[in-house]
Design brief:
The complex is a heterodimer of chains A (91) and B (795). Chain A has one domain: Alpha-Beta Plaits. In chain A, 35% of the residues lie in helices and 29% in strands. In chain B, the strands form 9 sheets. Chain B has a 7-stranded mixed beta sheet, sandwiched between helices. Classes of the chains: A alpha+beta (91), B alpha+beta (795).
Chain lengths: 91, 795
Amino acid sequence: MPVPPAELTAEFAMETSPEGEKSPREQIEAGREAAGASGLAQETGPESTALAGSRAEVLEALPQVIEAALDAGARGVKVRIEVPTEARQQT
Amino acid sequence: MSEAQTTREAPPASTPGHVGESVVRPDGIPKVTGEFIYSSDLWAEGMLWGATLRSPHPRANIWSIDTSTAESMPGVHAVLTHEDVPGRKMYGLEVPDQPVLAWEDVRYQGEAVALVAADHPETARRAVEKIAVDYDVLEPLTDSEEAMSECAPKIHPSGNLLRHVRIRHGDIETAKADVVVEGEYEIGMQDQAFLGPESGLAVPDGRGGVDLYISTQWLHVDRDQLAASLDLTPEQVRLTLSGVGGAFGAREDLSMQVHACLLALHTGRPVKMIYGREESFFGHVHRHPAKMRYEHGATKEGELVYVKARLVLDGGAYASSSTAVCSNAACFACGPYEVPNALIDSYVVYTNNPPCGAMRGFGAVQACFAYESQMDKVADALGMDPVELRTKNAFETGSEIPTGQKVTGPVPVAELLERVTDMPMPEEESPMGRDLRELPGGVSNVTHGEGVKRGVGYAVGFKNIAYSEGFDDYSTARVRLSISAEGPLVEVHTAAAEVGQGLVTVQAQIARTELGVEQVVVLPADTSVGSSGSSSASRQTWMTGGAVKAVCEAVRQSVLGKVREDIEDTPGDLRLEGGNVVSRDGGILIGLDELLGDESIEETREFRHKETEPLDADGQGDAHVTFAFAAHRAVVEADTELGLVRVVEIATAQDVGKALNPQAVEGQIEGGIAQGLGLALMEEIQTEEGKVHNASFTDYLIPTILDMPPVKAEVLELGDPDSPYGLKGVGEPPTISSTPAIVSALRDATEQELSRVPVSPDQIVGIAKKPPERPPQPGSRSPEYPTTTTIQPEE
């Protein structure tokens, strides 16, 4: 059974700073929380999260995630934006 | 690389038989005699054994994983954690939200955390015990209503609400009813309880790729998820279907597939993994438990005016196919009845309970129990016969489901009800002094007839066939016609999973019928041919049967084209029959052996059903291909003092469109009823705070031959206008309405409300505790949904 395929995915990995005001874990969590607030977040790994949804939704939510991570003291955010080539297969 | 012992050997030509004839299944007798080769029986030289470390906690943070002791054990070849997953660390059918191996959080009891490969299964098991995981145990979130609360902890980053399907049909505000009936219903977590636990053999190919011999329902969707997590191309991951011991939805998701492949690629050795029965309960998804609140309004003449329904499905820790189950529950929430106004909200949420997903009936089962219970209540409130009420409101061709989709083709709801009503009732002898085996409790000798009461109940159910909501649903088939030493030979090759439903037999019947060749071989299913989709949604005979029919037609056209090329002045109307090309008058024009000689004809075709569309924001749209219907009448006897039950008989009528293999259809009907009986009376995974209490067939009860009553079945072949041969899916409808029919009969016998399945003895004798009243949680009630009982006075 289908779920409409995501038009766009943005996977981001936080580059944490050990010298930041907040701990590396909190820096990651800050980005994750901002992603979660968008309703588009999918966990993809220990240090990474993805936004998946329509192009407009993903592009609107992305700056907020980056901002949240930077505000929490992250050194940077690696972002990989991808247009899925085919619909995810569903049952 | 050593050669694996697999089921790759070409099977013998199948039992002769054409479409419409009863054909013996090739796997039937070997399964009964214990000679069938399951995927758990596979073996390869130099093979290692894989084992999985699972979380004992339903919700916890992982602080550390120490594998050093396990790695140092003699005989251990690999210990892997999430750090060893080279590609995508998540998988999932609809949403890739489930870790291949957990890293930071565990979200249900039994979640996979680490893997071991060892030279002996016992060594692997002991090594698993030596992996030290430091957990910070958290309080699990296990109540689906609570999970919808704003203040509930988020199990996944975007929250706990996985999908809300909202259907608004007609004008609920102005709908006026003479009688209003409300009810709350609950369904427990049912297990598919298949015969063969999860198992498979992964064999590295020495070039970076892997071959996996596996029990599954959909080879290609497994392959694509495996390739992503193994960081390989799909071509480097090849799957071959091995002996499957049943599925019923439980093999749609990955279980040990990716784990076995990881271990095999890491060690460079074949790795076999087998779950025992206990591990199997943690290794696959289950049927969604549901809480459903209904309100039906009807005129005093018994015409349904409106239905309001709120369904909350517990998806457990990961998405699996929950979003589609949620949609089905919504689409079929009103049953096969004319309902001009409907307000339906179906939710599926994440909790820390075991993950739930596909199971026979897929959302329609939950809704059917509720709406059929409501139909009995409405009939009771009106003083009307429950069958008459159902018949009065029954769908006909052109009726609309609440999504606005018109039901096309034959829609024999009233006829099915009439047929089950007209079947003779089983004789009713006095229970006093009967043979114990014919009394509730049987030879446990708990009653000699005292307190035993008989009841009769009816139910109708329906469900979509094949995939819905705009999914590009197709199946691929390849057929080769050649001449062997024994004469013309047809080889059929698909990736469709024979999971015990008899698909192999049907493919051969279709090829035999279409090509007029008796010698047909169905080759092992694998990923070297295009996808056939899943053996689920009652779709495989339609879809892969359709693909085989289409490709056989293409082969036949090629044969006839060759005839016209080779033979001058051929008549126009030719067919293939008995291994020959035959003219209209039955005269043999040429034998296939003479025509083809050393040549062969091979064709490949994809088959698609008609397009469907997604539901819009109001839940409107032609989301489904077609629908299948069945009706059941149950006769039960209950010991009203002890709460024990004997189902005396089930009568059923079902429209199957066309019975390609009548014996297999009968098997599906009886098997589906057994599973429906199990849900009605005994089957439930018991959980407490997210922990499973009964992960064994000692404690998880399934019906045995002693529980299964005689079944009277009438099979209608009304012919679907859009399907190959007019067939319809058969597998799911028997499961859907058998459960409410049995419960309805129990209500008739006991006069108890029985709003939860499986029905427990304390419900039957009237001493069951009612669920605790709880105030609505913030955000958990639709503002449009009334929370008070409003029985309208008759005007």
